[in-house]
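Follow-up to my post from last week.
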Amino acid sequence: MGLLSLLDRAVVATARSFTIADVRLPDHPLVYANPAFERMTGYRRKAVLGSNCRFLQGPGTDPTAVDEMRDAIRSGTPCSVTVLNYRADGSAFWNEVSLSPIAGADGAMTHVVGVQDDVTARVLAELGREQAHAQERETRSLLESVLATVPVGLGFWDLDGRFTSVNRALAEINGVPIEDHLGRRVDQVLDGDLTQVGDHVQTVIATGRPVLDQWVTGEVDDCPGELQHWLTSYYPVRDPDGALVSVGAVVSVVTAQRRAEADRSDALERERRARVAAEAAHERLGLLTRSMEVLTASLDLDASLARFADLLVPRPADWVAIHLVDDDGRAARAVLCHRDHERADRLAALHRPGDLPQPVADVLASGRPRLLTKEPEDLLTPSGASAGARRDLGLHSAVVVPLPARGRTIGTLSLARAETPEPLGPDDLSLALELATRVALAVDNQRLYARDHEVAVTLQQALLPDHLPEVDGIELCVRYVAGAVGVDVGGDWYDAFPLDGDRIALTIGDVVGHDLEAAVKMGELRTTLRAYAADGRGPADVVTRLDHLAGQHRQGFLATLVYGELEPATGRFTYTRAGHLPPVMIDAEGDVRVVDDRPSPPVGLGSRHHQHTLVLAPGSTIALYTDGLVERRGEDIDRGLERLLQAAAGTTDDPELLCDRLLSALSNPAEMADDIALLTVRRQGPAPPAPPPSAP
Amino acid sequence: MVVVPPGEVDPSTAPELRATIDELRTSGTDHVAVDWRAVTFFDSSAIGVLMGAHQELSEAGGRLAVVCAAGSRRRLFDLMGLDQVLTFVTAVDELD
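User reply:
Got it. Predicted complex:
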């Protein structure tokens, strides 16, 4: 076989695809393709001869590669290009084409020999690797930009505990350039408290588990003297097989937050203290307000002082004592209080009335408050008490303050502590002084009032008749009860005086108004009435003239009254009832009735008054009274009248007894709001009838 | 003009009632009515206020009326003969 035929057989047999194109013909057709070409491309040789090998190109073919081949052919230079080609069945493959020009004897190119290799697998592998590289580069650059920009410090260590990577934020935190970290261990980069970071890294390396939320506090070089705070967490970094390859850490600067927290807790503490102080002030104000309420609620001084002292135990004091002196400086009243009322009573019982404890006497004399630190028991224990009794009290501190009123000291207020361990202090003293002014005011007011009241009562008594007339055949009884302290007093009055003709005038009245003025008016009225009565024109005339006079009174004058004239011999009682409650009659048998004849209006309105006449039978009694006897708050007047009738029934013999009965049945000491005047008149009866003679 | 006093007319509340009526009178109203129907307690201080108001209003050519149901509350007024002095009506529409 010749070399050519050997070559020929080699070309046919080779696994590499082999083509020859004739470049002298237009469009450079293929003139030869070996069997391997068929196998590689799937095209039958016979089908492709005469066509340009561009039939192998398709949509994915890179035009640049094609141009390269064409330029090579044109310039007659060999080239080797990898290009995407398509098989006959449409499937794509990477074709590494090596083109070699063949020249004739004259040097001009006649043919191009192409050798093709299906390098799909290789190209794909390369592409995959390239892609992987590109992804990795992309990821790494993404990671790097995160590391660079994120405001938390990120650090990585290898399993020897040496820094492998540090982002800018961590480098700034540490105050050390990035490169000075790498390859070094923590204790070579950081010092002081910050080396605990290295310990945490070692823990992760040793245990393979994260170490989270570790506070690290320390100083950094560029802010000496200032404590910084970081919150750090450490994570194991593992490779795809799960093996630990490094340790990463996240470091946040929390100095500002820690400082804010510290400030907040400082602020909270300040707020708490302020609140405690405000509460104390509020409590104190509440105590002062309640004290005023209690002290002014009633004019019963003993009750008010006792209730006031109760407000002060057990806080602020265990014991409270109030001592009052009269104008001569002698002990007038003492109030002693403890939370345990019985204990206070027992102690109070040991004191002699008129005793003034020495500390109290001292303060009364000086007018200045005292804080007792030595022997505070002197304040409460009676003189002559045993040492044991003094110890038992257990007093450890006391304040005594004067009660000032109108330039004088009228007593003292004392606070003492025994069971409460804290001694009384300046705050307690100033509280006691404030309370003292209020107590003093209340006591002084009550005294002034009581004095006024006394004056009024005295005046009123002076204006009432000092003796009752004695008239044959008539028994008179009168009662006058002044209203309780705390109520102004004034206008009730009664009168009884002889008229000519052996008659007797009887009056009961009530001037409207409850002040001293009313009492004075009452006096005027009584005198005037007596004068008019003496004219002898009868009750209607008397009262009408009285009314006329009252109407001329400057200040508007109003009074109710019953004025009657009684003739003892006949029992005729002629009377005018001007706006006053009706008299009550008890007959000789003890039956009672209200004398309900039509009244005329109260005096002072310019009305015309009329009169009625009734006969007081022998043995019967008529009772005249003022509304204080029958009126009760919240009750109909008829109810009171009924009570009066019930109380009066059956009392036939003795006007004094009747008065007593009526007062005890009807007056209500607890409610004594009003004066009561009561006048009872009994017409003496005949001797009791003789028993009938015994029947024959 | 109808004045409604508080439920209890006693020395502590009477002055205010007086002041209310006075104000009406001084501002030109001389026909005043007081609605007594809701009053649960009153004493002589109330009587004093009513009487004083009556006097002043009558002097000015007017009158004081009291709106009061017949019955126990009216009783005290009757016992005192005030029905002869004041105008009593049982309902507001009876007022002139």
